[in-house]
């Protein structure tokens, strides 16, 4: 096995993938699928149609039902067509949205929300407390099978949410939650009207959001949104039409922006960031953002041995990974996908690269001659293949032979993700309580490492229920320290949420969290 570090030139040469050639830009959502820009919805010359390119793939399983939302495409669709009671601020705290205010009792077991008046669903009905009750009871309904059920169900039973009057909702929790307005922000907690079913919302949106869903064929480019003329916020949205396009290939996305076919692109090539302003284009970034990671099932050999897990973490050169993948556009973090600057974020410095320690731990675990591992990855998300390729080079120094298996993007999340014991994924920044409950609570469908530690769960529940800010911070940090030391994630960095726009785009800024698409409400071009 090679005993040398991977240089950037060697890495980029080996992991570049298909190169972009001149000629027509193939704005492809899937391998082999080209997208014709002439298909974009256009109208009169005064119509402002904003073309937004996401870097992740589209799938035939994409859906317009927020309760079942589970893909990158779904997340952007929901943020345009639906709304939640609360929303994240830039610092990942909860701010009012469909709820104007809230209050709790002294123990954090009962929360009362005052709702916004004058809001209508896109079907014409008036938004009231009954819709909130229906939405949360539907999330918790086991026959619906929402991914949010395990998260919200930790604190709430279906009969715990009730309408006090038309514009007041009360949540009586079965366990205390000192941050309930924050806990109810999930990818699936968008409010739907009473009676809306999965059949109704397979390809049709019925939210209160700023955009109407005009054209949506799961697995097909583009998804088209039109301005909601009855939106409750005057003057919004700014654009008449948004075309949401999946363009997985990095070079194609950049070329589409440079040629004026796209207005906003996610994840521009970091090698292009310095040159884009000279081309009249803009680079816009948020300091909290995305994390690529490798997930290891901690109950499956050899990952059930903490010495193997720790060896793999010592083999990871975090600064080099940040430089190779993001050209330094981010911060190094310590094997847990949480934001260090968030109020409950971890405080310890990331683990240093130590090949000798990695080899020693492997030997103690019974692998003195090294170990061979299969790591599954895919082009379903930007950088996942390059991420695993880079780790392969680093791990080889420690005697860890990583066999990188590249699976088809169209079936990665349905057939591979969380079904094998070592695989790659990516996450967007969330508040610490939400991220911990999403990824590490037993029963969560997103528990990617199969983490199940009763003592840890007890500490997490105690932290969640505390109304003492200092105690909450201490306990949440204890939870994160245990994951860093014993958990099955390899997470070297948090990249800045970076996008690029045409020079005439106004009002766009990436949020760096799960509500990324919501900022399209404020965006247009001159």
Describe the structure concisely.
This protein has 526 residues and is an alpha+beta fold.
Please describe the topology of this protein.
Blueprint: H1 8-15, E1 49-54, H2 72-81, E2 86-88, E3 94-96, E4 99-104, E5 110-115, H3 129-140, H4 149-152, E6 161-165, E7 168-172, H5 180-183, E8 211-215, E9 223-227, E10 241-246, H6 250-258, E11 264-266, E12 282-296, H7 306-314, H8 318-326, E13 330-332, H9 355-364, E14 371-378, H10 384-396, E15 400-407, H11 412-416, E16 422-428, H12 432-440, H13 454-465, H14 469-486, E17 489-490, E18 493-501, E19 505-506, E20 524-525
Parallel strand pairs: 1-10, 1-11, 14-15
Antiparallel strand pairs: 2-3, 4-5, 5-7, 6-7, 8-9, 9-10, 11-18, 12-16, 12-17, 12-18, 13-18, 19-20
Helix pairs in contact: 1-10, 7-9, 13-14
């Amino acid at each position: 096995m090679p005993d040398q570090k991977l240089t950037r030139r060697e890495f980029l040469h080996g992991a570049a993938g298909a190169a972009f050639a001149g000629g027509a830009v193939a704005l492809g959502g899937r391998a082999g699928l080209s997208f014709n820009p002439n298909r974009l919805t256009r109208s009169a010359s005064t119509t402002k149609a904003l073309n937004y390119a996401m870097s992740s793939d589209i799938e035939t399983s994409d859906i317009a039902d927020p309760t079942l939302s589970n893909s990158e495409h779904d997340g952007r669709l929901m943020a345009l067509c639906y709304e939640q009671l609360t929303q994240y601020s830039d610092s990942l705290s909860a701010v009012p949205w469909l709820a104007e205010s809230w209050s709790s009792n002294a123990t954090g077991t009962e929360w009362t929300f005052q709702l916004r008046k004058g809001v209508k669903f896109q079907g014409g009905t008036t938004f009231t407390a009954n819709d909130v009750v229906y939405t949360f009871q539907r999330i918790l309904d086991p026959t619906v099978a929402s991914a949010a059920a395990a998260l919200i169900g930790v604190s709430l039973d279906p009969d715990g949410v009730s309408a006090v009057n038309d514009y007041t909702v009360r949540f009586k929790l079965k366990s205390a939650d000192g941050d309930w307005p924050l806990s109810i922000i999930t990818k699936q907690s968008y409010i739907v009207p009473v009676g809306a079913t999965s059949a109704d919302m397979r390809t049709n949106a019925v939210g209160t959001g700023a955009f109407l869903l005009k054209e949506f064929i799961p697995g097909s480019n583009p998804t088209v949104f039109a301005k909601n003329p009855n939106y409750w916020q005057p003057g919004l949205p700014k654009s008449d039409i948004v075309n949401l396009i999946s363009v997985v290939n990095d070079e194609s996305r950049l070329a589409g922006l440079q040629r004026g076919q796209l207005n906003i692109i996610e994840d521009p090539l970091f090698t292009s960031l310095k040159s884009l302003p000279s081309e009249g284009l803009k680079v816009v970034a948020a300091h909290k953002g995305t994390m690529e990671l490798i997930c290891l099932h901690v109950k499956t050999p050899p990952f059930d041995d903490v010495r193997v897990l720790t060896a793999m973490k010592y083999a990871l050169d975090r600064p080099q990974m940040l430089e190779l993948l993001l050209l330094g556009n981010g911060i190094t973090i310590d094997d847990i996908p949480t934001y260090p600057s968030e109020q409950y974020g971890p405080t310890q410095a990331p683990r240093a690269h130590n090949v000798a320690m990695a080899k020693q731990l492997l030997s103690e675990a019974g692998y003195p001659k090294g170990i061979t591992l299969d790591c599954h990855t895919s082009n379903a998300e930007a950088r996942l293949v390059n991420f695993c390729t880079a780790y392969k080079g680093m791990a080889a120094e420690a005697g860890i032979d990583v066999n990188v298996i590249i699976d088809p993007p169209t079936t990665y999340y349905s057939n591979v993700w969380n079904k094998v014991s070592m695989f790659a994924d990516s996450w967007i920044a969330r508040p610490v309580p939400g991220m911990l409950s999403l990824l590490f609570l037993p029963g969560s469908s997103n528990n990617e490492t199969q983490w199940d530690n009763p003592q840890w769960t007890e500490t997490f529940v105690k932290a969640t229920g505390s109304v003492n800010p200092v105690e909450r911070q201490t306990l949440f940090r204890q939870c994160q320290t245990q994951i860093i030391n014993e958990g099955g994630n390899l997470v070297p960095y948090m990249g800045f949420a970076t996008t690029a726009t045409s020079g005439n785009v106004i009002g766009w800024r990436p949020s760096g969290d799960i509500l990324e698409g919501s900022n399209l409400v404020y965006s247009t071009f001159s």
